[in-house]
Amino acid sequence: MVPSYCGSWTTNPDRKRSVYLALAPGKESNESMKRRTVGRTALWLVLGMLGPLSALGQDPQFTQFYANPLYLNPAFAGTARCPRVVLNYRNQWPALSGTFVTTSASYDQDVRGIMGGLGLLVTNDQAGKGTLTTTTVSGIYSYTQAINRKFSVKVGFQATYFQKSLDWNKLTFGDMIDPNRGFIYQTNDVPRGGSIGGADFSAGALGYTDVFFVGFAAHHLTQPNESLIVGTSKMPMKLTGHAGAAIPLGMRGKYGTPKTKLSPNVLYMQQSEFRQLNLGIYVDHGPIIAGVWYRSRDAFIALIGFHGERFKFGYSYDVTTSKLTTATAGSHEVSLTLQFNCKKKRRRVRTVPCPTF
Length: 357
What we know:
- There is one protein chain.
- The longest helix has 11 residues, at 13-23.
- The strands form two sheets. Strands 1-2-3-4-5-8-9-10-12-13-14-15-16-17 form a 14-stranded antiparallel β-barrel. Strands 6-7 form a two-stranded antiparallel ribbon.
- It is globular and about 70 Å long.
- By secondary structure, the chain is mostly beta strands.
- It has helices at 13-23, 31-39, 41-48, 69-72; strands at residues 84-92, 100-111, 116-127, 132-146, 152-166, 177-178, 182-183, 195-208, 212-219, 238-245, 247-252, 258-271, 274-285, 288-295, 299-307, 311-320, 331-339.
- The two termini are 22 Å apart.
- The protein is built from four helices and 17 strands.
- The model is unreliable at 1-55 (pLDDT under 50).
């Protein structure tokens, strides 16, 4: 799967030629010019999403799926019972000079009076050092229903307002290049784009016991138009399926909880023709969590996390295994979760045995 962004675009031959020239100016004479040109590769990935006739975008993805639960599945709202704040940062392909940087912040908690949870999720995604910026604000409600003493179900609904903008001044074109001095000319391309906003809707479901869980989410149910130039460019629906278990190992602690847990997981995503299968396993021992994931045809992921009674911190690194190899310098991701106290409730709210990260 092409990580984070991909585009199916229809345009004119001259624009394609301009893209090629900007990426590979064969007559450059200095090394710094070459480094700047490599750094601009991201801008043409952006242009690939902005074709004037048709384009298919793809959502940014986080490696620490469960450290950003509301982004993965709206049904996770309120699963921690007490108020929870989650902060996430991802820098993908840093060797390409700020290619894809995504941040998010969320808040959620269980609310007894509405038999479920409420959540707020804000994300910001920047491609090409802010050339293409997407900001979303989502409100989430989840409903909880106990099927029996061991199995519970949560259903989540998400309403989102998104705004996408293009900074045309940060783009470079082939007619700006001097063979000896690099990018010194003004382009003849007419500025286009600007910004567009709209509403978006998503839903998810989660079934779980004290040992295992399984979930499904469908994002962009209405497939909103996100074209910044002309015509229509619908955001494809994203489908996500995920499942896992928490297997206790060895001796138990003071309150009967296992000191060590092994958590195998599987996660599958599909958006338009792009598919992604993730297989992973976590080992949770005391305050330390370690995990490894394999993302099909793309990357191996190593993760280390620390958790206390009121906070969780995680770091992960994606080792690229595709043809891009070391040219991208992989991807770095950091997560921080703050867990707050709240009054105990008579109604038992079973926690989901999903991994922390």
